Amino acid sequence: MQAFDPDLLRTFLAFAEGGSLAHAAAAVGRTASAVTAQMQRLEAMVGEPLLAQSGRGRVLTPAGEELLVHARRILEVHRDAWLSLKGAKADGRLTLGCTQDFADSNLPDLLRLFGRTHPRVRLDLRVGRSRELTATYDQGAVDVLIVMRDGAQPDEIAILSEPMLWLSASADPVPAGGELPIAVLDPPCGFRSAATSALDDVGRAYRIAATSPSLSGLRAAVRSGIAITARTARFIGEGVAVAPQALSLPALPKAEFSLRLKPKADKAASSLAMLLAEGLPNESSRP
């Protein structure tokens, strides 16, 4: 019996969640040819094809679908063991700063795992807007930071890239036709700029129907049905869904978030950053 190499399984999982070898290569920081070689090694180990040609891309074979279930389980156990050994004697205090996008999605599950494996570490969580959090990080008061990306940074350890989506009330979406009412955060905001630029580029008439300094206010505006907004799938929830195609909305760019680790961070902060780099991108596979 051969043991599965976790690196091969991570690449395989990146392909399954991203849908392409190019996405997998970007996710694991390897070249496309290196990823292809890894998939060939994994197929040789399994003894069956895991990927099949489909048009210009590739999809999982039945054997690949079966391996996907095991790969997630193996990597979860591997991660738990690694964190437990790293965190058993760790103590002290660390501060995580992140935007509301992540605090409301799969971040709590990852923090639960971190807390279980690092029981003696006190975690201070700061949730807010990217600009304010970045300023606090630059002052040395935050150890791990997740904010909307504004260019490459020397302490950036991962880039979390997710599609922007037009979102509306799930029960009573904005009707098509006329000026498009949009809800946006107060400036500066990358989502606000992306939404207005996309509409301006196609000459679509719109008006700002609601503004808010917080995501809770933005969510209330969208759920009420008075406006649509541009966010990622992390914003989808009770009362909020992808806007109907009948609105004929323009394409939006991808949203990029930066995961940064303070220079000379201690082992606990480094372990948390690595856990987030591996676990947070999984949210982008949500429908």
Report on this structure:
- The chain has 287 residues and is α/β, with parallel strands linked by helices.
- Helix content is 42%, strand content 24%.
- The protein contains ten helices and twelve strands.
- A hairpin with a 2-residue loop joins β1 and β2 (57-60).
- The longest helix is centred in the first third of the chain and has 26 residues, at 62-87.
- It is globular.
Order of helices and strands: HHHEEHEHHEHEEEEHEHEEEH
Helix count, DSSP H or I runs of 4 or more residues: 10
Distance between the termini: 36 Å
* Mean pLDDT value: 86
Q: Largest sheet, described in full? A: 5 strands, mixed
* SS-derived structural category: alpha/beta
Low-confidence stretches: 283-287
| Strand count | 12
Spatial extent as radius of gyration = 21 Å
General shape: globular
Q: Give the amount of beta strand, in percent.
A: 15-25%
Share of helix, binned: 40-55%
Strand order in space, largest sheet:
4-3-5-12-6
Question: Characteristics of this structure?
Answer:
five-stranded mixed beta sheet, three-stranded antiparallel beta sheet, alpha/beta, globular, 287 residues
